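Lecture 7 notes: from sequence to structure.
We start with the chain below.
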Amino acid sequence: MDITLDSIETTTATALVGHGASESVAASVAAAVRSAEGNGNRICGLYYVESYCLQLRSGRVDGRAEPTVTVDRPGVVRVDGRLGFAQPAFDAGFDQAVAAARTQGVAALSIEHTHTATAVGYFTERLARAGLISFGCTNASPRVAPPGGSTPLLGTNPLALAVPDGQGGIAFGFDFSTSAVALGRITMAAAAGEKIPLGWAIDDDGKPTTDPHAALTGSMLSTGGYKGFGLGLMVEVLAAGLTGGRASVDVPPLKATEGPPHDLGQFYLLVDPDAFTGERLHRLTDQLHMIVDAQPEARLPGSNRQRRDPVDVPDDLWDRMIELSRG
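Predicted C-alpha cells for the same chain:
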C-alpha cells in the first residue's frame, strides 16, 4: 500500500516511544527511517523498526540514553552514545563537529558505544548539506571472510562519502558496503525464497553459492576481492579501533532481540572546502555534472535523486508497524 513519509515517520516514532524510547530519541531515529524509505533504501528503513522496538523492550538498546560530547583537542569531537541509538549521538556532536571543521579546516567526529547506525550515508549527507566534504564508516557483526578463507572476520563494514554543492545541497555522494552486497539483500532473498547471484557469498565449505540460507551460515564475499577486503579492514581500524567499539568478530547479531548491546562505533572525517580551493571545488563538481548529465543513462551517485513520497510498503510490513505503534 502507498504510505506517506509523514505517516512513516510518525508511526515509527510512536512505536519507538511505546517500547521505551524518549520522544527526542524516537524523533531522531524516525527521521532516519523516513530518509531511508524516501530514498528507496528499504534495508535501512522500516525493515529495522521491529528489531529496534523489541530490543528497546529487552534492554538491548537504551532508548533514553543521553550522549555526552567531549572535545579534548581542536578538530576532534568525541561522542559517547552510552549504548543508545546512533542517530541521537550524531545529533549531539553535529554542531560542534561542523564548527570545528570550519575553524580548523578539517575535523574528525567519533561516535562511540552505540546501536547500529544502519545507513551511514544519512549522516554524511547531513554534513554535506552543512557545506562540508564528509567521509563516514562503521563496522558490524562478522559476515565477510578474508580472500581465500571461509571464516567470517569483518562485518559488511559500509563507508559513505558526500560532497556539497555550495548551495546547501549535495553534489554527489555514495554509501556502500565493502562486502559484495548488503546483508539485508541476502536475508530478504532468504525470506522470499529467492536465489542470490554467484559472487555474493560462499557456503560453509568455502564454495560459491546461490542459496541465501547457505550464504547466511557461510560467509559473504568482499566487493572487488582483495580491494574491497582492504577497504573493509580500514573501516575496521577507524570505526572500531579509534572509537573503542567492538571489533566485528565480537559484535553479536544485530537484529536479535536478546543479547548484549551492539556497542558499535562510527567515524567521520569532515573537510571544509573553503579552507582549500573553495569555489573551485564547486566549479569542478558542476563540470562533472555537465559531462555526466549529457549522457542520458548516466548520473553521478546520489545526484538527481527522486525522493519517493508516498512509498509502496508491503501490506504485512505496514500491518506490523501499526501493531508496534500500539505498544
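Points to note: Residues 86-104 form the longest helix (19 residues). The chain has one domain: 2-179+222-277+304-325.
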